[in-house]
Fold this protein.
Amino acid sequence: MRKGQLFIISGPSGAGKGTICRELVKESNVMFSVSYTTREPRPGEKEGVEYFFVTKGRFQELIEEEKLLEYALNFENFYGTPKAPVLLAIEEGKDVILDIDIKGALSIKKNYPDGIFIFILPPSMSELRKRITGRGTELPEAIALRMKGVLKEVSYIDKYDYCVVNDQLHEAVSRVKAIMMAEHSRVSADIYKLIETYKEEI
Ligand code: ADP
Ligand code: 5GP
């Protein structure tokens, strides 16, 4: 059976990564990997849906028990990708998307070079500010911290395979879906197996 593919989505906070991932899960047969975090849940966020919310102590245990595929410290909180469910889904032929920061993405790239790395950009800094502010989930200091980091973040774009500007949401989602479809159309070992079966029928 063909293995699933790992899609890694990164980009500045507020660019719309979470929103795009939610649409992709609704519209395609892809699994969103729910991360662990030590940050507080935002209003409306549910345990096991956006994140698994854990204490710093529990997060430390997860690191020591080698239960994370990668982890990083981000805005003073830890975030990490659970290893077992992601590897199992891929083994079972299911595609998986990770919404993770650049440090996490670079660490995945080292251990999992077959991943497909997609960078989401906002159409402008003013729109980004509007989106973070409009989300209403961060205090002004936290917003300032996130805005300050944007130029440094985008300087890593050359480590990614694709970039998508999230101006109109439906257009951005279609583009990410198109990337996924294109990646499934690569010449691969499965295609050679298919071609082998042609010989039996000649
Ligand atoms: P991220 O996960 O990158 O931090 P979110 O998905 O939380 O960003 O999006 C930040 C805010 O911007 C949310 O309030 C979301 O509804 C809004 N948003 C996302 N994409 C768009 C878009 N294309 N146009 C307008 N608003 C958007
Ligand atoms: P937020 O607090 O806005 O949900 O996320 C902050 C940042 O952490 C975002 O850039 C998001 O992509 C990143 N993030 C979420 N989960 C993970 C994870 O498991 N690992 C890493 N490295 N970053 C993550």
